[in-house]
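From the pipeline queue, job 12 of 40. The input is one protein chain; the requested action is below.

Action: predict structure.
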Amino acid sequence: MNMIIFIAIYLFCSTIGLMLLKTSIAGRELNSVSAYIGLILNYKFIAGFFLYAASFLAWLFLLSRKDLSFIYPIVVGLSYVLIMLMAVVILRESFTINKALGVLLIGAGIIIIFAQK
C-alpha cells in the first residue's frame, strides 16, 4: 500500500480515537475503581481505544518504511491540525490567532519536508 494511504489511516484512527476517548471521559470523575470500570464499559471509550490501537499499528508500518526524521514531523503536524480543528468543531474549544498561525507554520513545515524527498 501507498505511504499516503497509511498516513491517512493513521490520522483517521488516531484523531477519531482520541476524540472518542476525550468525549467518553468528559464530565466523569475518575476517582474510584467503579468510575474506571464504568469508563471501560462505555462504548465511546471502547471504540476510541481500538481506533487508537489501530493507529499504533499504522504508525509501526510507517516507521518500518520511512525515516523517523521524515515521517514523524509529518504525522505529528497533521495530527495536531486535525485534532485542533475537531476540538474546535466538536468540543467547542476556542480557535485563536495563535492556533491559526501555528497551523500555517505546520503546513509550511510539512511542505518543506515533502519537497526534500
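Job complete. DSSP finds five helices and no strands in the chain.
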